[in-house]
Amino acid sequence: METALILSVFMLLLLLGVPIGTVLGVSAVITVIAFNQGIGMLGVNFVSGIASFPLLAIPFFVLAGTIMEKARLAAKIARLLELIVGRSVGGLAVVAVLTAMFWGAISGSGPATTAAIGLILIAPMVRHGYSKYFAAAIVATSSDLSIIIPPSIAFIIYGNITGQSVGTLFVAGIIPGIVMGLLVALMAYLISRKRGYRGLEERGSLKEILIATKEAIWALLSPVIILGGIYAGVFTPTEAAVVAVFYSLFVAVFIYRSVTWRDLVQTLVDSCVTSSVIMFIVVFAGIFSWTASVIGVVDMIANLIINISPNAIVMIILVDILLLILGMFLDAISILYLVMPILLPVLATFQIDPIWFGVIFITALAIGQATPPVGVNLFTAANLVDGNLDSVAKEAIWFVVIETVGLIIISLIPQLSLYLPINAGLYTP
């Protein structure tokens, strides 16, 4: 009865279009009250859901990314890449992918990267003959790399749920993130060559490239400082987030002088709103997961998964398919809290490495950000071109296909995820 109630309320509210955070919280609270499962624990779970040192990194990384966006550092990175590869076939599309990869190493958020990169690169792409829907699609799909390439909010939450080192997860995501980025860039090139999309009229001179490098160097150093500090053991991911805030403030206010005190106030407001939305989902998704565990839903579904096949690879592929489907309807944070508590006993049964699986899991969630009907990156990109979601989604299909190929590669080759953490001495399987 408890299982039927929580799932029925969940599905009903979801179909009615209620925001996912509210859906999770209401369905859990109703079930707890109806079956007297311990209403006094709701407050405890509410507090413990966010009273976590690793989760402190989320608002700081959000703030750092917002400051960098206000300082227009993405434009400086894009300008450098335009001068280097912008004139080749599909040059501006490839620039969009590469810029998204760099910006992802600053923001850690797919929609934020879509907005930042789209405002800079969609207009030049359209001006040079690219379809506006293709331009929006390439920005949306390449921006989903932001939650694979560290620092990543999704990795922070995965680490908090599973008890794995966030720093190790960050390092594990580097090679898979690059692999996914190269695959998206390859698809952008192939489509551009077929359609005759080109880049800039003139290749940048060595002098122009050097000037652009000088202007972009502070932006390029940001991921080096953040990840280098974690890699060298100088600071934890949470401490790295604080360093990122102070670094971004220093660059924006004293180096580029592109952010005023009024801008800083608005930046703080924007960051608080974004962080609040994330934490709202985190809290109520945590309560939902606790309730599902108490009434036995977690164990029931975990046993069903374990009994499907004795082969670990088959199980991983099935989970990939499940995540791709869920990604069409739910946001990444909600999926993490809904699915990971179920999969933890499954990982233990099949002896699957949790760091490797974390990269697989987050990569699948990243693809979901660019798949309709609830692809947040697609919505953001469609708004940027004043177009409809369906047209952007059609252009995104081939990019989603190539990213799915990348997901399969990462799922079959654990060394892509584990090589750097093991050789850096951060992890022992």
UniProtKB/TrEMBL annotation:
It is found in: Cell inner membrane. Keywords: Cell inner membrane, Cell membrane, Membrane, Transmembrane, Transmembrane helix. Coiled coil: none annotated. GO terms for molecular function: transmembrane transporter activity. The chain crosses the membrane at residues 44-68, 80-103, 109-126, 133-158, 170-191, 216-234, 240-256, 277-306, 312-343, 355-376, 396-420. Its main location: membrane. Signal peptide: none annotated. It is a multi-pass membrane protein. One of its GO terms (cellular component) is plasma membrane. Residues 8-416 form the TRAP C4-dicarboxylate transport system permease DctM subunit domain. NCBIfam families: dctM. PANTHER family: SIALIC ACID TRAP TRANSPORTER PERMEASE PROTEIN SIAT-RELATED. This is DctM10 protein. It comes from Candidatus Moduliflexus flocculans. The lineage of its organism: Bacteria, Candidatus Moduliflexota, Candidatus Moduliflexia, Candidatus Moduliflexales, Candidatus Moduliflexaceae.
